[in-house]
């Protein structure tokens, strides 16, 4: 008798209509969200101690801005080697700021951020890296 009752309860649970089951246990349909591609570009090196954005760098910035596909952020990072003096930090920060200002003059609809970072790679010392995402 107990086994027949247990069997009946088990069958009743199996055949319960889906509308009676809580939706909390169901997994929602997965939708593919299109994300904008992340674009990273190291701008050409600055000549000497220059801080102004060169024509070559302006062309590189325009090329990055043309590739944007739904991107909303534009980040300009001035890179420096750790053992450089503090004034180098100020110089690369100014370079990054000028790059972001130039990009903003072309595309004011984006969110802009500039910063400095320490690198171990001598080849990036004094350069500005732009990232758009």
3D structure, described in words:
The chain is of the alpha+beta class and 133 residues long. It has a single domain, classed as OmpA-like domain (60s Ribosomal Protein L30, Chain: A). The chain is built from three helices and four strands; from the N terminus they run αβαβαββ. The protein has a four-stranded mixed beta sheet with strand order 1-4-2-3, with helices on one face. Helix 2 (55-66) packs across helix 3 (86-106). Residues 7-14 and 18-23 have low confidence and may be disordered.
Give the tags.
20% strand, alpha+beta, single chain, 133 residues, 60s Ribosomal Protein L30, Chain: A, 4 strands, 4-stranded mixed β-sheet
Short description:
The chain has three helices and four strands. By secondary structure, the chain is of the alpha+beta class.
CATH topology: 60s Ribosomal Protein L30, Chain: A
Number of strands: 4
Chain-averaged pLDDT: 83
Number of domains: 1
Write out the CATH superfamily name: OmpA-like domain
- Placed side by side, the strands forming the largest sheet appear as 1-4-2-3
- Shape from CA axes? globular
Assign the structural class, choosing from mainly alpha, mainly beta, alpha/beta, alpha+beta, or little secondary structure: alpha+beta
Beta-strand proportion: 15-25%
**Percent of residues in helices:** 25-40%
CATH classification, class level: Alpha Beta
Please count the helical segments.
3
Task: Summarize the biggest pleated sheet.
Answer: 4 strands, mixed
CATH architecture: 2-Layer Sandwich
N-to-C series of helices and strands: HEHEHEE
């Amino acid at each position: 008798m107990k086994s027949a009752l247990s069997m009946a309860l088990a069958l009743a649970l199996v055949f319960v209509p889906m509308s009676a089951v809580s939706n909390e246990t169901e997994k929602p349909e997965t939708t593919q969200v299109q994300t904008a591609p992340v674009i990273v570009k190291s701008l050409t090196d600055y000549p000497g101690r220059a801080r102004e954005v060169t024509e070559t760098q302006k062309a590189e910035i325009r090329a990055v801005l043309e590739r944007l596909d739904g991107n909303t952020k534009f980040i300009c990072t001035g890179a420096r080697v750790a053992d450089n003096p503090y004034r180098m930090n100020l110089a690369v920060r100014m370079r990054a700021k000028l790059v972001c200002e130039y990009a903003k003059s072309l595309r004011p609809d984006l969110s802009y951020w500039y910063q400095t970072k320490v690198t171990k790679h001598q080849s990036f010392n004094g350069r500005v890296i732009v990232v758009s995402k």
